[in-house]
Each structure stands twice: as C-alpha cells, then as structure tokens.
Design goal:
One of its GO terms (biological process) is fatty acid beta-oxidation. Pfam families: Carn_acyltransf. The protein is α+β, with helices and mostly antiparallel strands and about 675 residues long. Residues about 1-20 have low confidence and may be disordered.
Length: about 675
C-alpha cells in the first residue's frame, strides 16, 4: 500500500522556498508577531503531494453522458451518444495520448492547471461580477466599536502575512480522524523531518495518520499580489517585500505601512488605528473621477487606459505601483443599509464600483456605519481553500487575541505623517473614460437581482440522522426550486469541488443535476407530491448519486476538467480540426451554466455570494449548518430569471424536504 502511494508522489523539479535564516534575537522578536509557529515549515508536504492523474478516457465520456442524460430528450441524447462513440474511435485516443505526454513533461503541476490559469487570464470580460466573489464575517459582539474591529482585522492580517512569509504557517491539512490532535500530528511530522529524504515520505506518512495535506501553491498570491491587465492575456505579479496596505474611501487612495522596516514585527495596533482614523478624517468630498472604476472595464480596454494613465505623469506611475504592491486593499464604504440583501449588493459590487480596485488579489471591505466586514478576491490566482484559510485565521485571531485592547483607542495620537495620499493626474481623455466606465458599471450592477433567505430549525444534523449527505440535501433543494421555477425543467448545474488534495489542484465540477435528482423533482414537484416513503427513497437515491459524484470530483475523476484539457489539446494540435464532441450543441449547452452553486458553510461566515456565470443563469451561494440552511441567489433582471421567484421556490423546497426528513425521523422513534 505504501509503495503504491509513494509512486503517486511525483517530486517536482523544484520546491518553493521562502523565508530566511534568522538570529536567535530576531527569531524571538518575530515570535511575538506570529499567528503561531508550525513545528514543520509551511511547504513541508508540498513536494510529496500526489500528482493529479489524467482520468481514463472511456470513464470520462461515460460520466459526461450520465450528466447529459437528465438535460436532453431521447433523440438529443441518442445523437450525443453517437458523437461520443465517434470521439472514442477517432480523435479521442490521439488527444488522450497528447495529453498524457504533456502531463509527463509537466511535473511541477498537472495536466490541467496551466490551461485553467490561462482560461482565467485570457478572459477579456470585466472582473466585476464575473470573477469577484465575497465572504462576509460573522458578528463579534465583544468588539462593539467597528473601527477597533477593523484595526484588529488588519493587525491579524499582518500576523498572517508574517507567519506565511517566514514559512511557519501550519501546512493546510484535512484531518479525517477526529481523535488525532493537531499537536500530536505535527510533532510526529517534526520527527519525520529529521529523516533523509523526508520530503518524499511526508504525504504518505500523513496519510497513514488519516490526515490529508492540501496544496498550498496558491498561497503566495493571496497577499502582495495583483492581476495586471495586458492585451490578450493578463498576468499575475507578486511583491514579496511589501509592508504596506492601500485604503480606499470615496474613490480616494491612502497608503501606510503595517509591517515595520525590519520585516519582523507589526506596527502597533494603536498606530494602525490612528492611521485608519487619519484616513477617515480627510474632509475632501468623494472623488469626482474615481480612477478605480477603470479596473472594472473590459480587460483590453483597461489595458489601454492603464497605459495612458501610467504615461501621463510620474505621480500616476508611483500611485499605480503603490496599489499594485500593497499587501491587500482596505475599502471603507459609507452605506447605512443593514438588510442582508443590501449588504450583499454592497460587498459584491459596491454600487457603481467607485471605491474598489478590482485587480487586487485580496480586498478587506468594511461598512463602518453599520459594523459589517467582508473580503472579496480576484479569482484567477486561486480558489476557496486559500481564501477561507485566511478568512478563518483572521476571524479567530482578531477575536481571541486582538491587537487592540478595549478602550485603548481613547489615547491615540495622530499619525498623519505616515499616511500617504495617492494622487492621480487626469487629463480630459482619462476623465471621459472614467465617466464612461462608471456609467457602464452602474448599468450592469443595477441589472443584478439578489435575494437572501435562511431557514431555521432544520439542517445538517437532521440530514445526517436520516442517513443523507447534508450537501446533497442542499443541492436537491436547489434542483427542486429550479424545477418549480422553470415549470419542470432540469438545468446545467455547476457545484465547485476542490482538488487541493493534489499538487497544484484547483477545482473539479460536481454535476449535481442527475437523473436521480430529476426523478425526485418529478415525484415531489407535482400538484400532489408522492407519498413520503417514495419521496424518501428518491431523496436517498439522489443523495447516494451526489456523494459518488463528490468523491469522484475530489479525487480528480470528474469529466469536466478532463474534457476541457482535451479540447485545449485539440486547439493546440497542428492542423487538427476541433472534434465534433466539442461543437455538439449538447456540449455547448451543458457548459452554459444555469445554476452556478458553491457551499459557504463555515462558522466565521455570516453570508457570501457571487453573480451568475451566464447572462441567463442564477448564482447560488448556500450554507447548511447544524440546525439551519439558506442561500444567496443572484440573477440578472434583463434575463428571464428572477432571484426573488427562485428564492420563493427554494423556501418551498426547504420546507418540503424538512417535512419529508422529519417524518422519516419520527418513524424511526
């Protein structure tokens, strides 16, 4: 068994290195400013992570057809089956061979990672609503002053950065055995680190402890990073020596350091608060021509405007450099709205986008008047694993050991000399471009329809007691809601699943609209639902099917990324035409996602969401906790969809599922 696992651990040509050797005194200084000090270095498992294998061609095509079955008529399915059989006999084997050869030459990554990055960076659409999800923080009653809480979040973010930059952030590990303590596990790994060749053994040793290390290749882009617009394809740039943040308020920019020049310690929390206060004390009106709006434009348009902006003056060039190189962005908004829907709108797009710089990898948002906080991130560089780790660390650290003590803010002195205003020189052409972009973005964000609802009294615990996967129950509720909304249709559905168990793994798709969910919707969705025992049996079948899809996706055995990579290979193949499989209307249809879904279940998350991925689609960010479930639904008003109507159907679906599962549990008593 161990030898098989070791064969999967293909060691890359190079291992990431960061941090530095410190003297004892410097190390002691640093320790005071860390989240923690891991017994093993941050990339301890990275070199030994399993390689994401290219799936079997026949298996992927079979799974693809299974996903197509609930979406197509018998005639359409027959035609698509014939096209798939043709693909397996003709183009498929050659493309599979080319992909396997490519994979062998790409030991640093996997067969799809570069194609996936390329897809994001070549997308010329605006980042706003397309690539910028958000997560809002749960409340912190022990920190009633919003500015104090923001200070502590900034301070904890600096702790996170110092911990990561010095390679002592604990490696990301999923623990399957609840009896194994993290402390005992890491101490055993520390002992392993003394064995020659341990980097090859690390993952296998963790596996034997029922612990699964996760990929951390995205982490370097979380902070001190940005997406830079370039014609045809953008790029990502890192600034490892960054010590400052940039704050935005009213479309204006301010910069100040949060890490000391020694790179070992954090600016005192009281000083950070004073610098935040200095920015808030600026009495100038909101910027008439907010430069950040330009980052919301089509990427090629923004590329040209940025070049004009940078070449207009040295002031502009210096301001751009300060924004690009900042650790992260802090955006202070002025909204007085307190409803969940209003907060979602504010965090998702901030109205006309005047107070954002959408290229920045990470943004900490604060609506101080109502004490609400969130993060958003630019999606090309990474996915939920890296962001949720940062999110949870900052939430826990800022609450458990805040840098700023209660009442400490009363005696703070002004620190205006350390706050730098970032200015821009704008000519008439740039002002006109800003005005146009602002108008276009306002129209787009005004078109976004959004609703939020939470159902209390039913959730994860009831689903588990009934022998059902909680995630499958949530997905079935979404499917039933759409069934009612559309008058009985089944839609192409995307559920994101992390493949971070593999080196440079990103995501795979769970195609959660299955024949089993379609059958449940048929039984439950009529004017007279089927008897409870039939509904429960159908729900169990849907749950089992979904669990199988989830397991396959997490293990890199879904079909979406495999066919995507084969299509990329066909486009690169010299003189080769694109196979009929990829021009089949059924293939195009299944990839025009109507229901884009992602789970946001974490105690630190109050609410989160994202926009639809297609003009006529719905974006559904959902959560299921022990005794509650809910979602944020988005749609475009200009389409035939309505988030309000979907939400009404979703409420009805949750009530029906709660009733079915409740009766089943009562029958067991």
């Amino acid at each position: 068994m161990l030898s098989v696992l070791l064969r999967q651990c293909r060691v890359p040509r190079s291992t990431p290195t960061s941090g530095r050797l410190l003297s004892t005194s410097a190390s002691n200084i640093l320790d005071e400013h860390l989240l923690h000090r891991s017994p093993v270095h941050t990339e301890f498992f990275q070199a030994s992570l399993p390689h994401l294998k290219v799936p079997d061609l026949n298996a992927s095509v079979e799974k693809y057809l299974n996903s197509q079955r609930p979406l197509l008529t018998d005639e359409q399915f027959s035609a698509t089956t014939s096209i798939c059989q043709e693909f397996l006999k003709q183009d498929g084997p050659e493309l599979q061979r080319l992909l396997l050869d490519y994979d062998k030459s790409n030991s640093d990554g996997n067969y799809v990672s570069d194609f996936w990055f390329d897809m994001y960076l070549r997308d010329r659409r605006s980042l706003v609503l397309n690539h910028t999800p958000f997560l809002a923080f749960s409340a912190a009653p022990e920190q009633p002053d919003p500015l104090d809480r923001l200070t502590n979040m900034v301070y904890s973010s600096a702790r996170y950065q110092l911990t990561y930059a010095n390679r002592v952030l604990k490696p990301e590990v999923y623990f399957l055995d609840p009896k194994l303590s993290e402390e005992k596990f890491y101490q055993r790994m520390k002992m392993l680190s003394r064995i020659p060749g341990h980097s090859r053994l690390a993952w296998a040793a963790a596996y034997l402890h029922k612990a699964f290390p996760l990929d951390m290749s995205q982490y370097p882009n979380l902070m001190a990073s940005t997406r830079l617009p370039q014609t045809g394809r953008d790029s990502l740039r890192r600034y490892p020596d960054s010590r400052h943040i940039v704050l935005m308020r009213g479309g204006r920019f301010y910069s100040f350091d949060i890490i000391e020049p020694d790179g070992l310690s954090i600016v005192p929390a009281s000083t950070i608060r004073a610098r935040l206060s200095e920015c808030l004390a600026d009495s100038r009106p909101a910027a008439e021509f907010p430069v950040g709006v330009l980052t919301s434009a089509d990427r090629d348009v923004w590329t040209k405007e940025r070049q004009k902006l940078a070449h207009a003056s040295k002031t502009n060039s210096a301001s751009l450099e300060a924004i690009d190189s900042a650790l992260f962005l802090v955006c202070l908004d002025e909204s007085q709205q307190t409803s969940d829907s209003a907060l979602c709108h504010a965090f998702l797009h901030s109205g006309d986008g005047a107070n954002r710089w959408w290229d920045k990898s990470l943004c900490l948002m604060a609506i101080l008047p109502v004490g609400e906080f969130a993060v958003s991130f630019e999606h090309s560089w990474g996915d939920g694993v890296a962001v949720s780790r940062y999110f949870n660390e900052v939430f826990n650290d800022s609450n458990r050991r805040p840098g700023l003590s209660s009442g400490q803010s009363e005696s703070l002195a002004a620190d205006s000399a350390s706050v730098r205003r970032l200015e821009f020189d704008l000519d008439d052409s740039l002002k006109a471009s800003i005005a146009t972009c602002r108008e276009q973005l306002s129209a787009r964000t005004a078109d976004l329809d959004l609703d939020f609802w939470q159902f209390d009294g039913f959730g994860k615990s009831s689903a588990k007691r009934a022998g059902l996967s909680p995630d499958s129950v949530s997905q079935t509720a979404i499917q039933l809601a759409y069934y009612w909304l559309s008058g009985g249709a089944t839609a192409p559905t995307y559920e994101s699943c992390s493949t971070a168990a593999f080196r440079r793994g990103r995501t795979e798709t769970i195609r959660s609209a299955t024949s089993a969910t379609k059958e449940f919707c048929r039984l439950a969705g009529g004017s007279e639902p089927a008897p409870t025992d039939q509904l429960l049996a159908a729900l169990k079948a849907a749950s089992d099917a979904h669990s199988t899809l989830t397991k396959d996706a997490a293990m890199g055995k879904g079909w979406d990324r495999h066919l995507f990579a084969l299509r990329c290979m066909s486009e690169r193949r010299a003189g080769g035409a694109v196979p009929r499989l990829f021009t089949d209307p059924a293939y195009r249809k299944i990839n025009e996602i109507v229901l884009s879904t992602s789970t946001l279940s974490m105690p630190a998350v109050k609410i989160g969401g994202f926009a639809p991925v297609s003009p006529a689609g719905l974006g559904v960010g959902y959560a299921i906790e022990d005794s509650s479930m809910g979602c944020v639904a988005t749609a475009y008003k200009s389409s035939s969809r309505s988030s309000a109507e979907f939400m009404r159907c979703y409420q009805r679906a949750c009530l029906l599922l709660a009733d079915v599962i409740g009766k089943a549990l009562d029958a067991k008593k």
